[in-house]
Amino acid sequence: MCHYNYYEIMRKSKDNRVLRYQMVTYAQQKGIKPAMRHFKASRNTVRKWLRRWEDFGYEGLREVSRRPHNSPNAVPPEEREVLKELKKTYKRMGADQIKRKEELTRSARTIRKVWREEGVSSRRRRKKHETKQNLRAVKKQYALFQQVMEDTKDLDDIPEYYIQMKTKNLFTIQYTFREVTSGLMFLGFADQRSLTYSALFARYINYNLCKYGVDLSKSERQTDNVLSIQADGKLNPRASIQRKLKVFRDKNM
């Protein structure tokens, strides 16, 4: 006898035809009532699949969709076209807003379903990995050392480092210089946060890069406050990566 209920196995099975095939062959050999007891299924269930097995063979054991052929509540083609045109007219509005504005009788859920079936673009928020991929595409357009990120970090908020920092009198501030295209990074450390230390760290980086022939004439440095410092020392607040990412999205939409 089968240790599990027929319907419990059906819910977890990937191919329902396997168990049904065993059931109908058992029923052919020993009868419908013994098969019903062995597989813990109802009499009607055994009879149904036995008839389908006799009429259509193994393919007849496949689950048949119960969806009706005709739906009286289906959205007619004329109304679907109207919903598509409304979405094109109100590009930045959602289904709920358009429903209220145009006083539509269809629910917002149905309107969204029609848009999805018709392939109309929605206001779906980009997922985090999609934003990162777009950002990588922006960074690839930069030349080497064209865009640089400078950051200052307090190290006393790292639990694993704090005890060692106090007992061994280690550095508390980290200065970071990162080239966004290649990922090249330079690090500097200090005992306190200071504008003098930041300037010295930047000058030290410039000196060594120029020493090895790196052209910094078109370089822009982005600081913590999202402002960008050009090679001539002027501020360029519109050159941040976030704004360039927006321009990239607009061009590729």
Query: What percentage of the residues does DSSP assign to strands (E)?
Result: 5-15%
- What shape does the CA trace take? elongated
What strand line-up does the widest sheet have? 3-2-1-4-5
Span between termini: 61 Å
Radius of gyration: 34 Å
Major sheet description: 5 strands, mixed
Low-confidence stretches: 226-233, 237-242, 244-249
Quantity of strands, as a count: 5
Count of discrete domains:
3
What percentage of residues falls in helices of 4 or more residues?
A: 40-55%
**Total DSSP helices:** 11
Structural class, judged by helices and strands?
alpha+beta
Average pLDDT works out at 80
**Helix and strand sequence:** HHHHHHHHEHEEHEEH
Report on the architecture of this protein.
- By secondary structure, the protein is of the alpha+beta class.
- It folds into 3 domains: 56 residues; 42 residues; 124 residues, no CATH class.
- The chain is built from 11 helices and 5 strands.
- Strands 3-2-1-4-5 form a 5-stranded mixed β-sheet, covered by helices on one side.
- It is elongated and about 90 Å long.
- The relative contact order is 0.06.
- About 8% of the residues have low confidence.
